[in-house]
Amino acid sequence: MTMGIAGEVAYRALGSNGGPGTFKTKLFDTIFHLTPATIKELGAVVVR
């Protein structure tokens, strides 16, 4: 089941073994560097 792009990005950021600071860093890094390839990798959107 797909959570949508926001849910997928947050889930990916939670996968780290760091604390809250690491979560924020990874979350913002993922959001600010979204590319069609990243979105396709997340599986939230079909990119053609």
Question: If you had to describe this structure to a student in words, what would you say it looks like?
Answer:
This protein is mainly α and 48 residues long. It has one domain. The protein is 62% helix and 0% strand. It contains three helices and no strands. The relative contact order is 0.21. The model has no long low-confidence stretch (mean pLDDT 66).
What characteristics describe this protein?
single chain; 62% helix; mainly alpha; 48 residues
Report, as a whole number of angstroms, the end-to-end distance: 20 Å
- Radius of gyration, taken over Cα atoms and rounded to an integer in Å: 11 Å
Total DSSP E strands: 0
Low-confidence stretches: none
What does this entry show, briefly?
With 48 residues, the protein is mainly alpha-helical. It has helices spanning 5-14, 20-32, 36-42. The chain has one domain.
